[in-house]
Amino acid sequence: MALDSNERPGQSVAKFESMLKTDDIYFFDAEDFEEIIHHYLNHGKIALAKKAIKIGLRQHPGSIELKLLEVEVLVFENHLEVAEQLLDELQLLDAHNEEIYIQRANIHSKNDNHEAAVLLLQKALELAENSFDIHSLLGMEYLFMDDFKLAQKSFMKCVNFDEQDYSSLYNVIYCFEFLEDYDGAIYYLNDYLERNPYCEVAWHQLGKQYFTKEMYPEALSAFDFAIISDDSFIGAYFEKGKVLEKLGKYKEAIENYETTVKIEDPTSHAYLRIGKCHEKLGNDEMAKYYYYQTVHEDPLLDKGWLAITDFYRKQHNYKKALYYINKALNIDGENPHYWKKCALINACLKNYEQADFAFKQTVELGNYELETWLQWADVLLKNDDIPAGIQILSQGKEFYPESAEIQYKMVGLYLSAKDTVNARICLMDALNTDFEKLHLFEKEFTQFQHLEWIHAIISNCKKASR
After folding, report:
1. Do 252 and 281 meet the contact criterion of CB atoms below 8 Å apart?
2. Which of 65, 231, 377, 447 would you call most buried, defined as having the most Cβ atoms within 10 angstroms of its Cβ?
3. Beta-carbon count within 10 A of 23 CB
4. What pTM, to 2 d.p., does this model score?
């Protein structure tokens, strides 16, 4: 039996599910089947959608719309060849159906042929009366192609069509951010807010743009308006807390973070920020409490373990700091920043071999900072592995050929290795590079201050500079 036209939406779904529980066979209009199938697809119930398609095509074997929904499911399940064959048949029946081109575009997109997908979607645009969904699909294809300007234009068209399409609004701002056009994002959002002054999403995004540009008072106002528009908007409270932190208003920041915890279940990120604020206020016990709450809430949040590491490191409790940096490394062992912290902590504990290994990992993972080479050489010097220290500084010199810091340290290491020839060469290079930094050598390698030839080279360099 067909559903009456005045039955409320969803009634057809209920009747279909009732039919599945019995041996009765109900008749549905093709439009009813479309509603049922869309319902199941939207809720991720693919098996039920397929069952509805099968029954629907039995009752309406000539329905192009139901066959197109069958294609949609085939594409979703990666049965692309079968989907293509069915689309070929449908195109012979209805060559001007934009949905055929949309599904062909989806197939090309699945095969990473995004240029072909774009051409098909543009063809669909020529045929479609309502192009809103097609512009959204085009925007996604342009994102896959890293063409952020064209993606932005497509998503802007979606927002123009439906200003409540927040997904497209987010994508517009994402494109602005990727293009680092923060002023453009601010202009666009302010223009949008002229028409939608109570849109908490737009105020929230505007605040984030101001925050990026370090315009903290403006960011604060934007987040306040987001909260006025929706006083349960957790994201606005959290971002407002970050702004207040930047302004040094830690107590107010804590209040905003605590509000997010009260509105919804607590999050590890909120606990982490509260801990950071308490640490800035000198409330060490409270800071420690919230850091432990952070990792209790989310044991896989490496930043939580890192916060505890830094907390104990500042207190010179290096054994505990080492324990917790290893926790962070267990979660993200590819982070050079964590390995560097591990190296420095091991150095403080005089675990020089472990520190050497950690510095090696640091560099292999892409940290080539000047301080890394200098600190690694210090570790090798303390471990009496002077040749390795010289080798490390030589590598560092390739990245920083004009670094007087590296050159003066190499002088000290060559002298420690009793290689006066290379020590002389390095000293002259260092003095010519930056005479003013001679104090670095004098402070670190006091044991060589008695060497007369060093004083002679320094004296000659002073005369030459005059």
Report:
1. no
2. 377
3. 5
4. 0.77
